[in-house]
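Continuing from the previous page of notes. For each protein in this section, the sequence appears first, followed by its structure tokens. Read the first protein now.
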Amino acid sequence: IATHDLGLMEQVDARRMILAGGRLDIYD
């Protein structure tokens, strides 16, 4: 796995966490 791919994965995970956090905040 290339470093560039790992960087993209980190960005995707960060976006998922932000989206999940936003959803939790809305539902709360």
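Done with the first. The second protein uses the same format. Note its length before scrolling.
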Amino acid sequence: MKKKHILLYMYIAFALSTMPIYARSDSGFDSSKNIDLIQPYFTNINVFYNDFNITNQGKAMLTSIVDARNVDRIRIEIYLQRYQNGRWNTVKSWETNQNGTLATLGENWYVASGYQYRMLSYAYVYKDGIIVDSTMFSSTTIIY
């Protein structure tokens, strides 16, 4: 009986020691931050970075950055939305049109407490006045 237990423990130890490890706890990623980096394989968009946070004082901070290639203009739209009465309503929106291959849009807005908020952002890249690529981002919900 004792020999069977030893063999069983040895088998479990061997099985566990041969399992691959796919994640490391010291990866440096801080999941507590509400920062989202999306790097899809688009035709012209290299990076679409978005950041949304609300401070303890109710200051919503929204940032969107687009880096593209083979384009001459970038348009970014940001929407701050509040969930109220069972639907998302736009509180405030901003837009920028910038020439070149890099565009940024960063805005702040004070929000009322007791609601859920999210950020939507849209990126459009143009070549000779024609949209050649686009994408969108929806943040996680923040309760303030």
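What the second structure shows: Helices lie at 2-17. The chain is about 10% helix and 55% strand. We return to this in next week's lecture.
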